[in-house]
Amino acid sequence: MLTEMYILGFFLVLTLINIDAAIITRYDESECNLDPQIVRDIASYKNVTQTIMDEIKNKGLGQIMFEQFAAFLDKFGARPSGTETLEKAIDHMINLTRAHGVTDVTIEEVDAPHWVRGHESVSMISPREKNIAVIGLGSSVSTPKEGITAEAIVVQSFQELDQKTNDAIKGKIVVYDVPYISYGETVQYRSQGASKAAKKGAVASLVRSITPFSIYSPHTGAQYYDDRVSKIPAAAVTHEDADLLYRLQNRGEKIILKIKMFSTFDMKKSRNTIIDVKGKDNPDKVVIVSGHIDSWDVGQGAMDDGGGMIISWLAPIALHHLNLRPRRTLRAILWTAEEPGLVGAQAYLSKHINELNNIDFVMESDEGTFKPRGLTVAGSKEAQCIIAEVLKLFSPIDNLKENDYPGSDINLIINKGVPGASLMNDNERYFWFHHSEGDTLNVLNKTDVIDCAAFWTAASYVIADMKEDIPRKSKAV
């Protein structure tokens, strides 16, 4: 059953990410027909939002947050699902929360995938000898002890693969040298490439790293095995090497590669961490802010998703510090095991499935904490109009982008009819560092992270404290 949940969550990540949507910088008010009293109520939050943001940006709270964030990253580094390091990182954040005087902390156990990479190497044997930088894809099976030595065949699309006969692929290593278009369009070669190659008889699969930019940097990520075909080793190589292999093939060279990859897989216990500031009027109603605390096993997981985790964690800390209690409960969730397939979010949804009517709004930051620009919003037209009105409080951080699937973990909840939003920020270079050794504190700017935290906290407070609930679309089936 857990495997099915894992696969479902993973495919939701792939299906719902990077869907194009128009940006509305000054939404057309003729499309909105809000009650004037709602507009006045929202406008009345101007002073309190300035107070919250000033406390974080100018009075030291954001500086403290960032110093604690940097110490967290340097202490724990990468935090893969199912590892002892992740569990120690979770303990650290729980203890840090309590040290700030916030004691309403709940943990919920999650069965988490625990895939551990061992030795990985790829070398070109012919037409010349060359070591090729490689990184295994999550959940990849191992090669035999002696490795796999076979001819490589390079393709640039699934269509090109399909056009080849099974005999042309059988016993070979398929290399996908697919130019990056967008993450949403190109990631399918990482997620499905191994099984599509195996279906035609391939013995291993390599994919050009899913990134728009490379300085000889391989990028890992999750991949899915179709249980109807053999499981074959799957890994990513750099742009430079994938392109090299394609050029060699086009010149008529026979390419022989040797792959050695070893890994282990089992299940471990992990935890979602829930931090509440109880609502003063309607504590059963909840507004969620969230980010995932786990990461891949490379880099520091600073950008993906340490930044989103820390700004969501700060929201209840800041409100406690300012002695602010919204009408509804403000709940920060540090999701576990997002990277292997939204596992923590799926566990939360299963446990709280009968409480969805009490989730007023759900928010997530998992696409960077660079210069904040606004919110990407899923929900009814009226919900979007209300959030657009809230964003007026934060000009020039007032962009609104409509997207039915704005996040990763929260998409599972939004798919049940709950309105929600993700942080919109200047993340044009996000996929340069995504799932690579480059995802370190160096890619983040302290001022930007603090500005994101200030906006995130203040916006979530307004939503949690407004008199009116956020209107919903009809529930998804």
Low-confidence stretches: 1-16, 18-22
Q: Globular, elongated, flat, extended or rod-shaped: what is the shape?
A: elongated
Helix tally equals: 16
**Estimated radius of gyration:** 23 Å
Helix content: 25-40%
- SSE class: alpha/beta
Largest sheet: 15 strands, mixed
| Distance between the ends | 21 Å
Number of strands: 15
Percent of sequence in beta strands: 15-25%
Mean pLDDT: 94
Protein architecture, described:
The chain has 477 residues and is an alpha/beta fold. Helix content is 36%, strand content 24%. It has 16 helices and 15 strands. It has a 15-stranded mixed sheet that branches. Strand 13 (372-378), helix 13 (381-391) and strand 14 form a beta-alpha-beta unit. Helix 3 (46-57) runs antiparallel to helix 16 and helix 4 crosses helix 11 (302-321). It is elongated, with a radius of gyration of 23 Å.
What's the short version?
With 477 residues, the protein is an alpha/beta fold. The protein is built from 16 helices and 15 strands. Helix 4 packs across helix 11, helix 4 (61-76) packs across helix 16 (446-465) and helix 11 packs across helix 16.
Helices, strands, pairings?
Elements: H1 2-16, E1 23-24, H2 36-43, H3 46-57, H4 61-76, H5 84-99, E2 105-126, E3 130-132, E4 134-136, E5 148-155, H6 158-163, H7 166-169, E6 173-176, H8 183-186, H9 188-199, E7 204-208, E8 234-237, H10 239-250, E9 256-277, E10 282-292, H11 302-321, E11 328-335, H12 343-351, E12 359-364, E13 372-378, H13 381-391, E14 399-402, H14 411-414, E15 420-425, H15 430-433, H16 446-465
Parallel strand pairs: 5-6, 6-7, 7-8, 10-11, 10-12, 12-15, 13-14
Antiparallel strand pairs: 1-14, 2-3, 2-9, 4-8, 5-9, 9-11, 13-15
Helix pairs in contact: 3-16, 4-11, 4-16, 11-16
